[in-house]
Amino acid sequence: MSYYQIKSLEQYFKHYNKSIREPRKFWDKIADENFTWYQKWDKVVEFDMQEAEVKWFLNAKVNITKNCIDRHLAKRGEKTAIIFEPNNPDEEAQHITYNELYERVTKMANVLRDQGVKKGDRVCIYLPMIPELAITVLACARIGAVHSVIFAGFSASAVTSRVLDLQCKLVVTSDGGFRGNKTIDLKGIIDEALEKCPCVEKTLVVKRTNSKVNMKEDRDYWLQPLLDSAPSNNVAEIMDAEDPLFILYTSGSTGKPKGMMHTTAGYMVYSAYTFKNIFNYEENDVYWCTADIGWITGHSYIVYGPLLNGATTVIFEGVPSYPDFGRFWEIIDKHKVTQFYTAPTAIRSLAKENWEWVDKYNLSSLKIIGSVGEPINEEAWHWYNDHVGKKKSPIVDTWWQTETGGIMISPIPFVTPTKPTYATLPLPGVQPVLMDERRNEIEDNQVVGSLCIKFPWPGMARTIWGDHQRFKETYFTAFPGKYFTGDGALRDEVGYYRITGRVDDVVIVSGHNLGTAPIEDAINEHPAVAESAIVGFPHDVKGNALYGFITLKESGEDRNRDNLRKEINEHISSHIGPIAKLDKIQFVSGLPKTRSGKIMRRILRKIAEGEFTNFGDTTTLLNPEIVDEIKNERI
Q: Do 201 and 170 touch, CB atoms closer than 8 A?
């Protein structure tokens, strides 16, 4: 296992260099020594990056749930696999052992088979963050059904479009879900969504909130009675390495979601390997990722990565502000969490509150803290390091995407020296390059360019469901022969990478290319500012000018707005230069965000340009009402 887990910087460079020189031998050894296979592969990898065609571990046979559950039973059967922490802190947490997880997954797998679900069928899952969500995901994988988790907060229309795109056969949902002090009518949303989905034959309903719901005859069935009569053993389906495992939708620049398809063996190897190294997981650790399983972070680093390593993983149903702003820290204290992985959005929102919410709890169990979802700004990095990590738990600032399947660039804790706002170095097997506008690779350090990956890695998505041409055009045509991430990056003097934001978030002002992320970082350092988003808008003289949408901390709400605008521009001028100053600054109560915390700059760009139509489906936003507020108060 020493080859599997990196313990020193010297070992990192040794492994990394081998993975670049001999990638096939590198991944062959990782896959061979650390997983259970029905049949080994004939060939490690076969690819044509020009055509966006990639296959890993050709002709190997495997089932990912045998590796997540079955192989742990002899040694770890009574170890806790999942800790479920409910929304309501007065409700008792559940501790599910690997033996219990096996029984619950096999029962659910048998229920799905009894309902007519076969290998290759698509199953949509629309559940809150309860154990049944992870169990259903694993049950699908066990019988070879392709799972597609839809975040339980998306609108009926968003659900409809995904179900129809997949021609989904069966849906698993619940009577409702708890989120803070609200109860969400999930069954009602599903009922509305399925009115336009004749492909769905059955709906299985988990009882969570005990809400009164409508049950459609011959379509809707309560899940629990079916589980009660199902046998508690199940033969896992033998899957080909390249059989689809799941399809997960991510937002597209055109507004039409993309169903990213991940396959079985490569994703298994990559999610397990990256989890073990990024979180330095040891046998008795308690790991917690606060994401939702509806996102790729939840797939790779709540369910698959941890369970493949025999870990204890926390599933949290609630929100960080309920019943108060100490909830995250109370849970860490309660369960003695050792690794904590959350989003910069959550960090910034909690940093706005009194730091005493953090300090009243004992966080001494923490060994590693991490951030995911977007680049973390320097102020948030230092707050996280000082108040949560207590300057002893290294921050793993991870960069990756739905499309990559797992973490690509990140510090390895206690190995890679960290640097605020830098994702630092690529993982072994990951070959990043920076490209200039003429499609040439930039060899030097201390440069900025478009971030591409020039050699395939096992966890990468294989296609967009039903539209391989779109997959090829989106990711493999801008820089032929390379995967284009869509992000820009800065590489410093020692080769550390800092993600500067989406390449389309570069605004050309008076001939100067200005990345919006560094400007936002500078603004966010102002003591009155909570968060900001910068977009460009047409300007008669400059070509483009900068428009800032800014939310304030409570301490800044009473400040004179004209004075604040002046201070913010002086702050930008001193940090970046006068060219980066904002022509317009609009103070807003919130920013339009997806459920994963991503700011929808496409909407802000339209508002800044004075275009108030064609925003796309705003019902999938976390806060759709904010769009009208921003639009109505546009400067």
A: yes
Here the contacts of 465-469 (C-beta below 8 Å, separation 24 or greater) are 465/165, 465/166, 465/247, 465/259, 465/260, 465/261, 466/165, 466/259, 467/258, 468/52
Mention every residue, 6+ apart, whose C-beta is less than 8 A from residue 21: none
Rounded-to-integer distance, Cα 481 and Cα 51, Å: 8
Summarised one tens digit per residue, pLDDT across range 432-472 is: 999 998 899 999 999 999 999 999 999 999 999 999 999 99
Q: What would the two tokens of residue 400 be? A: 């990756």
The span from the CA of 280 to the CA of 414, in Å, is 9
- What are 170's strand-pairing partners? 123, 202
Environment class of 603 (CB within 10 Å of its CB; exposed 0-12, middle 13-18, buried 19+): buried
Distances (CA, A) of 445 to 354, 400, 416: 40, 21, 18
CB atoms within 10 A of CB 8: 11
> What is the per-residue pLDDT for 230?
97
Judge whether 495 and 465 are in contact, CB under 8 Å. no
The full DSSP string for 519-536 is: HHHHHHTSTTEEEEEEEE
Query: In the structure encoding, which two tokens stand for residue 387, read together?
Result: 């108040």
Strands in 395-397's sheet, in edge-to-edge order, are: 94-97, 80-85, 312-316, 286-289, 339-342, 368-371, 395-397
Q: Which residues pair with 313 in a beta bridge?
A: 82, 287
Q: Which residue has the tokens 């040694």?
A: 75
3-state secondary structure 199-219: CCCEEEEECCCCCCCCCCCCC
- In a 13 Å sphere around the CA of 448, the CA atoms on its Cβ side amount to 14
The per-residue pLDDT for 1 is: 41
CA distance 476 to 31: 27
Residue with token string 């929100």:
319
576 CA to centre of own chain: 30
C-beta atoms surrounding 420 within 10 Å = 17
Q: DSSP E strands: which ranges in 412-496?
A: 432-435, 441-442, 447-453, 463-464, 483-491
Q: How far is CA 615 from CA 89, 157, 256, 602, 607, in A?
A: 38, 15, 12, 8, 9
| Omega before residue 323 within 30° of 0, cis | yes
Residue 258 phi/psi, 5° resolution?
A: -110, 125
Predicted TM-score (pTM) of this structure: 0.86
At CA 389, angle to CA 387 and CA 393, rounded to 5? 165
Closest Cα to residue 248, out of 332, 149, 129, 120? 149
Residue ranges for the chain with pLDDT beneath 70: 1-3, 251-255, 505-506, 508, 510-513, 541
Domains and CATH numbers, the chain: 510-632 (3.30.300.30)
Q: Give percent helix, percent strand, percent coil of the chain, each to the nearest 5.
A: 35, 25, 40
**Amino acid identity at 357:** W
Whole-number Å distance between alpha carbons of 297 and 308: 15
Separation of first and last alpha carbons in the chain: 59
Q: Which class for 365: exposed (0-12), middle (13-18), buried (19 or more C-beta within 10 A)? A: middle
In 158-168, which positions are buried (b, 16+ CB within 10 angstroms) versus exposed (e)? bbbbbbebbeb
Q: How far, in Å, CA of 554 to CA of 559, rounded?
A: 10
The residues, ordered by sequence, that sit 6+ positions from 569 with a Cβ below 8 Å of its Cβ are 581, 582, 585
User: In 455-502, which ranges are continuous DSSP H helix?
Assistant: 468-475
pLDDT of residue 253: 47
SS3 368: strand
